[in-house]
Structure formats: C-alpha cells, structure tokens
Amino acid sequence: MPAGSPSASAVRRDRTEKIALFRYQLIRAAADAAVTTRQRGPMVRDLAAMVHPGPFGGTVTVSKDTIDRWIRAWRRGGFDALKPRSRAQGAVTPAQILALAATLKRERPARTSAQVRRIMMDTLGDAPSESTLLRHFRTLELPTGVRDVFGRFEADYPNEMWVGDALHGPKINGRKAYLFAFLDDHTRVVTAGRWAYAEDSVRLTAALRPALEARGVPGTIYVDNGSAFVDESLSRTCAKLGIRLTHSAPYRPQGRGKIERFFNTVTSQFLNEITTIDSKTGEVDAGVGSMVTSLDEMNALFTSWVEMVYHQAVHSTTGQSPLQRWDASWVGQKPVRKSREEIAEAFRWSAIRTVTKSATVSLQSNTYQVDQLLVGKRVELVYDPFDLAGLITVSAGNGVPAGVAVLSEIRRHVHKKAATAAADEAETGAKNAVSGIDYLRLVEDRHKGTMAGEPISFAKASTAKRPAVVFVPTAQEAVR
C-alpha cells in the first residue's frame, strides 16, 4: 500500500483515533476538573508506574512528563488534541517481566504482590506496580491473599456516575427481549431504560443517546464486560463527550449492587405483571396481568411504571424517592449538558467511499452529491446511522474537511443495522388484560394524565396510540 494512497490515509486515521482513545482513557481520571493539583500528582505518578494495555495489543508504560503533556492537551483542545501529529510509541514493558512475577508467585503462593515487587526490584532494579501485579495475578487466577471488600459505595452527587447493565427478559412473539438500563448512582433515578430484541451496541445506543439529551452528561459510566459495553463505538462516544468509561472486572461486581437490585425490582414488580403473547400463534405464557405482544407496548408500560411507581417510591437507604433525591440534589447547580448536535456527532458512524465521475457517492443504497474536485478520490463519510437524510460530513485524505454530502436519491432513511433496532417497535399489539385488574395499564393511564396535566379515572382504559417512549424531564429539569 503506497504511503500516500487514500487507503493508507484511512488506515492512519483509524490508527490516530485509537491512539487518541487510548490516551484519553489513560488520563481521564487525572484530568478531571474536580481533581486538585495536590491530588493529581500522586495519580499521575501511579499511572506512570503502571503497565497499560496498548492501543494495538501488548503493553506499554508512559512517563510522568508524557502524561502531564496529554492532560494539558486534553484541557486545551479536547479529544482531537490527543491525536498524535507524528508516529509515537511508548516504551514497551517485556512480557517476560510479568511472567517472572507469576513464577515468583507460583513458587510461594503466600507471597503478596508487594513482596513479589520487592524481590523483582532487588534482583532486576525494576518492577511493575503492586496494583498491576495484583491484577495480573487475578487474571491468572493465582491466590492474592486480598479479601474482596464489597462496602457500600455511593456517588456524592447526581450524574457523577451512571451504572449500566442489560437484563434478559421474556420472549415476545417468540423473540427474547433485553432491557438496557442506566441508573444514577447517587439518586437511583433510572436515566435510561429501553427494551429491545437484541443485546448489541445499536440497541445500547438507542437507549443511551436520548438519556444524555434528557438527563445531562455523567462524569463516569460504569458497565460490565458484555459485548455491547466493550464495543469500540461506546468508547468513542464517551471520549467525544468527555465521559470516563469504566468496566468492572469479570466476576468482581463491586459497585454494581444498585443496578442488580433495580433489576430484581423490575423482575418482581414489573415483569410479574406482564403476560406475553405471540400475536402470530396466539401462544400465551403462564403469567397474568397486562398482555403484551410488542416492544412498543413493553416500552410504554415500562416507562410509565418507572416514572409513576419506581421513581415515586421512597428508598429505604436514602429516605427519599429517586425523583425527590434527584430534584433536591440539583438545587443551586446544573447538570453538564451537550447540545443535540454534539451528542449526535459523538454517536456518528463513518465509511470510506470512492467518488464517482459524476461527483457522487453511495451509502446504504442512497446517492449523495459531493464536491467536483473529489472525483476519483477516496473520502470518509461521517453520518448518523439513524438519520441518513441528515448531515453527512466529508473528509478527504489525511482527514482534511471537504464539505458535506448532499442527498440526491434516498432509498434508506436508516442504516440497515440500525433499522433492525427501529423495526423492534414496528409491531402492533393487543391491549386487553388477562384478568379484571390490569395494573400496568392503569399506571400507564396515570402517567399519560400526568404528562397532559389531566386527572385520571382508573375506571377508564385508554385505547389511544402510545406516544414515543422517552423519559420526560421533570419540571425542575425543564428550567435548567
């Protein structure tokens, strides 16, 4: 591949993005504006002493001066300022060092990570940090002699940390449903919640994106290692919005108790009131309550239950309902918000295309007009997969901006991968109840009345078409 070819440029752009993402994830905690200069020093020294997974595999170490330089760049120019201007590679720590540490641990399992480090320092003059050794021993399932501490943790303020996870639910029309949910750690407010037919990054995006618009941008998102949560698209989204993305260690659920308890509540209070039915075969599950035959119904009922039941119930630990605690915690301060344009940009996808002789490019069977000067060149299109008729920016070689792609002929409004998520709710469903008491329908009617500012009669059952499923900001949020 010639060094100056368009393909080589695309490879360089991808490499640059990955390096910037690696740098961002490394410095994010130390670069936080809430961290004082006195606190930052030890944090940077610890980072410099650690061995980090490299952006392209292997491990790397980074000097204190380099970390300080990256922090200054991040504060000055955000994510883009972390992109390298020229090729750079941190010093690599040989794998043999970690192998030696494992050997020392295996020959005497009672050795602590501190003792192993002392032995290596005495014999080699260098060694990974204790925390790095501890993680390495745990990865190898070697005894560490350190007891797990599952003490209660709580964020100090709202939007400091959202905890996310996915819950496996019942089958609807023969297809398994999954709930993507995010919980604000301080208030227990459900910032995002959406049922889907697949546990993938597209459905995760569909849940998270409107939550960021409605509730603000959290400082940290804490998730497990499910495939949707380790997808590179989530890492890039968080990096673009300045969110610290943290993954829990496998089988080590510290800090995840609240979301797990919420899922227990969903199961006992919501799913137990659901009866799923296959609209094609007529097969009904063994449950009682609201009869559900589509995700549209499932999401509408779930949103109403969250807003009218879960958010209103007093929490045993805080002594407040999640919504009361959320509103009270924002007195005198405002959540960090990003514009719709900034959020949309963070969730964009990209594609490489060659411009035809007629100065057009094709994307998902759609045709777009670009600048005549780009004829015959390979360009990068950056677009919203959920809105192919919207803004599509064009970049030429080396990421040089080259205007926008103007829609000429449209056959798809949504990317085919994103369309599967949109189609999840395109079903029509029954609205009848299994028994005489349809609890969740009554909750839904009450929710609709609250949104419309009208009193609700529980003697009436609504048959109107449901609105789009969104979490509506409270009155206090609306004025922020």
Automatic annotation (TrEMBL):
Xref: PANTHER family: TRANSPOSASE (PTHR35004:SF6), TRANSPOSASE RV3428C-RELATED (PTHR35004)
Superkingdom as given in the UniProt entry: Bacteria
InterPro entries named among the record's database cross-references: Homeodomain-like_sf, InsJ-like_HTH, Integrase_cat-core, RNaseH-like_sf, RNaseH_sf, Transposase-like_Mu_C
Species: Cryobacterium melibiosiphilum
Annotated Integrase catalytic domain residues: 154-330
Entry protein name: Transposase
Transmembrane segments: none
The organism's taxonomic lineage, starting at the top: Bacteria, Bacillati, Actinomycetota, Actinomycetes, Micrococcales
Signal peptide: none
Swiss-Prot/TrEMBL GO biological process terms: DNA integration
GO molecular function ontology, one term from the record: nucleic acid binding
Pfam families: HTH_28, Mu-transpos_C, rve
